[in-house]
Amino acid sequence: MNINFKIKPFWFWNGKINNDEIAEQIAQMHEKGIGGFFIHPRQGLEIPYLSHEWFEKVSVAIECAKKYNMEVWLYDEYPYPSGISAGEVIAQHPEYQAFILDYKIVDAKGNEEICIEIPMSEVLLARAYKVRNNAIIWNEYIDLIDNIGIIYKEHIYQESGLTFYNRKRYFVGDNAKVLKWKAPKGEWKIFLFYQYPLKNFKYFGTFIDPLNKDAVKLFIQTTHEKYKKHLGHEFGKTIKGIFTDETAPVSVKLPWSKLLPKLFEQTYGENLIEKLPQIICLDIFDTAGSKIKYQFWKLVVDTFIESYDKQILEWCHQNNLLYVGEKPILRSSQLAFMDIPGIDAGHQKAGDIPQVVSENYRANPKIASSAAHFYKKERVLCECFHSIGWSMTMQDMKWIFDWLILQGIDMFVPHAFYYSADGLKKHDAPPSAFFQMPWWKHQKAMSEYVENIIKMIKNCKRKVDVLVVDPITSQWTCFNDRKVKEKISKDFCRIQQILLEENVDYYVIDQSLVGSLECRNQKIYYDNEKFELLIIPPVTNLEKEAYMKIKDLILKGCKVVFIGCLPFQNIEDFDVAKDISNFLGVNPMDIAKAYTTDSKLNNTVFLNSCIFIGNIEDLATKIDKICKKPVSVSYESSNDRGILCVYFENTEHDFLFIINPTNEKKICKVHLNFNADEINKIYSVPLTSQDSEEEINFENSSEKKQMVFSMDFEPFQSYLIKLEKSCVKKNNHKNNIEKRAFQYKISLEDPWKFSIESLNPLRLGRWNLKLNFNNENEQYSVTSKIPVAPKPIIDQLEEAKIAVPIKTKSFFGCPKEITLPSFEAIYTTPFFVDARDQKFWLVIEDESIKGEWFILLNGYTILPKDFVPKRFYSHTNLAYDISNLIKLGENQLSVCVKISKSFDGLLTPIYIFSMAGVFKLNDSWHIGKLPTQGCFGKDIENGIPFYAGFIKYEKDLQMPSLESGFVEFFIEDNIDRCVSLYINDEFIGTRCWQPYRWKVASDLLSSKKIKFTLEVSTSMLQLFEGEVIEPKMHKIKTI
């Protein structure tokens, strides 16, 4: 299926969905270079999901998208995770509900009275096993199932008698199960395993069992088939595919399904229930235990794939749709059963230490991109940006895009574009990278960047010489030894980090694929693709087929490296420890014990080109000797590092994508393993319409058969370098811009004239709270001792620790429930006005206040109907002109709300917009005259602490005498906002990320004195959250 290379966000449908607004938002996306969208039903949606009205709105979106040749992608749940059809599956078939497996383990000694309480549940196993010499004797046990009974823990009193003679009743509730047992002589270990329905699950209260094929089939019937009924004519045309999200086997301590015991017996001929104590208890060095654990986890993974992935994949293919999404990766081979597999990563700000490689498979780009490569998937996606918050900038986005692209991600699904950020919706794992952000004006540059880079490298082949075996089966068998499991996981992660840092590209290969490797002339091949080296990270086991293939590769002289630990657990019917002892002449059990106790392990050459590296950090120094790299990077300082790069090959030209993910400048040399006559020309490729091609001078070293060129990096800077091969006819192409003749540093330290594009808000975000209660004949009030922030009343009561009278409701024979009584909440805050010669607007959002309400300003009543729609920062803004109500000095604003629900109250800040300045004096907010001068980026000092929009900084510059050519203006400071440069009011260009450099023709600077203007965008953090980022500490700070 033909899919464009553009950004495709989650479009959160989270409000009053209006046809005109749908059309407007799609038009905005198209204008900014967005290639499509996932229609994501999201909390706050005000039309019934999967109703006739819902499909009408989706149809409107499809028709609008067609006009712009944009792609529409569906999302299969409301809101998430996928599988329950917003609750419909369980409503129709309660038996499809997921069950939790839980357990308790208790030690007992002879004559000890044991009493173990568990929730009301189905007891699967209750046994006391004999313990002798600190070892459990698994064939000596006492079945305790008959020692379990039921109790009631809650005592209930009610006055609701059947007759006039008695109204008092006594009941009990909250039943539970109890095991009571007196231990016989000796030592015992008691195991209690029990299962109960999943409760308190987000959104739905419970969830389906995704290992149940019938449950998933009903999910498809109640969601996918409905889309087919209404929109099937667009499948494979405008509608490209459907996204599934977050679904995985339900797990607390162990993944579980009520179906597993029967499936385990069918698959392995064993009683799973009886094996549960061994699964959770046996030591990692116990041979029998390793096999059972492996069988259990493999069954869970295989069953999930059969039940969930394969059913949905088959339905999608039958209906000409692509099955795409991201969810926990159980093992990388699972991704074979998605058309576009994905991950969930990229939730940091530039300047933080980038989590380029994650221990979490679901957030590891290389796991997904490697699987996509081996299973020949069209693309690999990343759901990115959620929870970065409203401080996110385009620099943050570009920084994340860079290190995801570097690792093979080529389809980006930003989380999210909000249809509405009204009320509490703005806190739905923000930010919205959409029109709510002031920098959205410049989104086209980011869209161009992503599309151009992916389009160019997609036609090339990555130069990958290394395979790294996925150690997932070792994590399975060590799951109950947290220290060892984490060590294996961290070491696997660290190996990948070292390879990236050393500029060695690699694929992660699942053990199920290792058996397909071949040896040809001492090189490793997979499907005719050649690799130089196979790395086996610390493992406690390998699947038999994978192990036998690795042994075969070693015997045939291929380069194989074991790191840290050798396989010693027997997970299939094969004694791997014995075979390794005979084959390599070492005892893997001894190595494993040294590894798990952090003892020193020496590097060893085993056989032919097979080596063992005991210390993972030694890989950094060994890799150059083991594997020839196509590209390497050297630095001026021997201690410097951080540049990451990958190499792409093509017939006529190659590409080098090279990034600086750090917040420091870097000066380095790039060494390419080419002969002097193989390359005609090297140049950086322009990736946005404002970039220009620049040729790179290089040196040849015929002795070393290398080409070398120097590169300077600003913080977070990246390049796509094109290497034109000698087979391409030389041309006399000249750069668009000559090499700069003069550089001019823009100093941001001195004061500038500054102005703002839109009105300046005072954000009222802390309120004194008073509660008025009317309890029958008694009226009284309670006042908070500390100010509260806008949020639902239940959370404000908790924050301020306010005691409220309780109200109860009851049902016959059941415990009383405590509820919130009805009362009036009065929120009050003062502000001061020092200058009032202009217009003032009181601004709220449509959902700022829940409950019946009115506002008092200096005693004047303002009703909801008095507000009019007027856009300030959102299409849902409501405003009231308070110019005549404002007075000099102290002003008092109160919001009075009648509370009837726990989520009523003042939910968002209230704003006063004007063209005045806003200042904090003696812990009070003052509105005064807006300064006309200020320092760059000093928003608080400049009187615009909560401003969101564009700020213009202007000054007159005295230019020196210039020859013809160009001047390059540059900002050296580490900033992260979008900056547009104007000279004498003529637009020069916008820089949305590092480097902040503009080349200007000298004829524009012919006059000695020029008007120099910088237009700078903000984020929404200050307005929405009343916070700023502290750049040095990289932390949020309240204004």
How would you summarize the topology of this molecule?
Blueprint lengths: L9 E4 L5 H13 L4 E6 L10 H16 L3 E5 L12 H5 L6 E11 L3 E7 L2 E11 L2 E9 L4 E16 L2 E17 L4 E11 L15 H19 L7 E7 L14 H9 L3 H10 L5 H32 L3 E5 L15 E3 L20 H10 L6 E4 L9 H13 L4 E4 L2 E2 L24 H16 L2 E2 L3 E4 L2 H6 L4 H20 L4 E4 L1 H4 L3 E3 L2 E4 L2 E3 L1 E4 L7 H12 L3 E5 L12 H9 L3 H9 L7 E4 L2 E4 L5 H8 L4 E5 L8 E6 L3 E7 L6 E7 L6 E6 L9 E2 L3 E3 L4 E8 L4 E8 L16 E4 L6 E5 L3 E5 L3 E8 L2 E6 L9 H8 L6 E3 L7 E3 L3 E11 L7 E5 L3 E2 L1 E6 L2 E3 L5 E2 L7 E5 L7 E11 L5 E2 L3 E5 L2 E5 L2 E5 L4 E2 L15 E9 L7 E6 L7 E5 L2 E6 L4 E6 L7 E9 L3 H5 ...
Parallel strand pairs: 1-2, 1-16, 2-3, 3-11, 11-12, 13-14, 14-15, 18-19, 18-23, 23-24, 24-26, 36-57, 43-54
Antiparallel strand pairs: 4-10, 5-9, 6-7, 6-10, 8-9, 17-28, 20-21, 21-22, 25-26, 27-30, 28-29, 29-35, 30-34, 31-32, 31-35, 33-34, 37-55, 37-56, 38-52, 39-40, 39-43, 41-42, 43-50, 44-49, 44-52, 45-51, 46-47, 46-50, 48-49, 53-54, 56-61, 57-60, 58-59, 58-61, 62-63
Structure description:
This protein is an alpha+beta fold and 1039 residues long. It has 6 domains: 10-93 and 207-460, Glycosidases (TIM Barrel); 99-197, no CATH class; 466-626, 3-Layer(aba) Sandwich (Rossmann fold), CATH 3.40.50; 663-682 and 693-735, no CATH class; 752-756 and 929-1038, Jelly Rolls; 760-907, Jelly Rolls. The chain contains 19 helices and 63 strands. The strands form 15 sheets. Strands 39, 40, 43, 46, 47, 50, 53 and 54 form an 8-stranded mixed sheet that branches. Strands 12-11-3-2-1-16 form a 6-stranded parallel sheet. A 6-stranded antiparallel sheet has the order 17-28-29-35-31-32, covered by helices on one side. Strand 21 and strand 22 form a beta hairpin. This is Glycoside hydrolase family 2 sugar binding. One of its GO terms (molecular function) is hydrolase activity.
